[in-house]
Write a structure and sequence with these properties.
The complex is a heterodimer of chains A (252) and B (101). Chain A is mostly beta strands. Chain A has 3 helices and 22 strands. Chain B has a domain of 59 residues. The chains are: A mainly beta (252), B alpha+beta (101). At the A-B interface, strand 1, strand 4, strand 5, strand 8 and helix 1 of A face strand 1, strand 2, strand 3, strand 4 and helix 2 of B.
Chain lengths: 252, 101
């Protein structure tokens, strides 16, 4: 989810028809600038170099969204709110990257699912498998990243992530933010009962290693055993795609 | 030929030689990693979204949605529809935003 205010304009976006490393590249109708989604930045055109601002949004199942937001409305296109045809189903199940793409390096499996974040000039990724029930990672100084996924969560489900000044530790099964005394409610995935500055929610990408690593090969991979640095000489990025039939209306 | 005429002629030549910014195409700046698979607009984005209430929605309870609350108003977009349109251009109050994942 992005703000459409960028570079002093309100832009309208659509699929450009092209991809970079298998990821969406949008184009806006006002300036024809191309926007690379994985970098959230204009890559060609008058607004090149401008960054899109991410807005908080969650991916969840309709029944859960409805329970927490009973007054919600839902998008309807041509009288439909849902579609049984999912063009991405096979891609998600496959262990291979889009059209044979391989990740920038072998620190994680090609299709490992992960939380990826851009924090200032740093890119970090944490495999989903380490986040079940919550985990905390030091980012240097007093700053740390806390992220949480429920047990058995589908890879589609958003990870809740927070940046914290000051330590977060687990006490008798509950995550506690020590400076404020706030406790993490794993059902609602919010910090409660704290005083002062609470951990700040941050928005990242839940995606695959192949997708993120090709956009950001210098990413630091955070694991419970420590940080996996990018290899000094990442594998050269392979040529990405073969031409699609001209009448194809989907990526797949 | 007067100096003024020569200057004018030189100026005109320079104007002709320079590539004006408006004549450059964004495509000229695209990186080599950009691969075009479809024509622009082949996947139809949504520019004038419409909504139904939760009680009127025909959607599987287990369907995945992208949910957002802006200016106190909750909205949901099924991922299955987003996958077919890639981008929904929307506005709530004074906040224009694009639903994309």
């Amino acid at each position: 989810m992005y703000s459409r205010r960028v570079g002093g304009k309100v832009c309208s976006f659509e699929a450009s028809g092209g991809l970079i490393h298998g990821s969406l590249v949008m184009q806006d109708r006002e300036t024809n600038t191309y926007w690379e989604l994985m970098k959230s930045v204009g890559i060609a055109g008058p607004l090149r170099g401008k960054h899109l601002k991410k807005l908080p949004a969650v991916k969840t199942q309709w029944r859960d969204w409805l329970k927490s937001h009973p007054k919600t409305v839902i998008l309807s296109v041509n009288g439909r709110e849902d579609s049984l045809r999912d063009p991405y189903a096979n891609y998600v199940k496959s262990s291979k990257g889009f059209r044979g793409l391989e990740a920038a390096d072998d620190r994680l499996a090609t299709k490992a699912s992960l939380l990826a974040l851009t924090l200032g000039k740093r890119h970090v990724a944490v495999p989903h498998e380490h986040l079940v029930g919550g985990a905390v990672f030091s980012l240097g100084g007093s700053e740390s990243l806390f992220a949480h996924r429920p047990e058995g969560a589908s890879l589609f489900r958003s990870t809740r992530a927070f940046l914290s000044r000051g330590a977060i530790s687990r006490k008798r099964g509950t995550w506690v933010h020590l400076p404020s005394g706030a406790q993490f409610d794993p059902t609602r995935e919010v910090w409660v009962k704290g005083r002062g500055e609470l951990p700040r929610a941050v928005t990242g990408f839940d995606t695959f290693w192949v997708t993120w690593s090709l956009a950001h090969p210098e990413t630091l991979v955070l694991t419970p055993k420590g940080v996996l640095q990018a290899p000094k000489r990442a594998k050269p990025v392979p040529p990405t795609t073969r031409p699609a039939p001209s009448k194809e209306l989907r990526w797949f | 030929m007067s100096t003024t005429l020569i200057r004018t002629a030189l100026g005109a030549l320079l104007l002709l030689a320079a590539t004006p910014a408006w004549a450059q195409q964004p495509e000229d700046e695209l990186p080599d990693t950009f691969k075009r698979l479809l024509r622009r607009g082949a996947i139809a984005a949504v520019f004038e979204p419409t909504y139904v209430s939760a009680s009127a929605a025909q959607i599987r309870p287990e369907a995945w949605v992208l949910g957002v609350v802006i200016e106190g108003q909750p909205r949901a977009y099924s991922l299955s529809l987003l996958n077919r349109h890639e981008v929904v251009n929307d506005t709530i109050g004074k906040t224009p935003f694009a639903a994309v994942w």
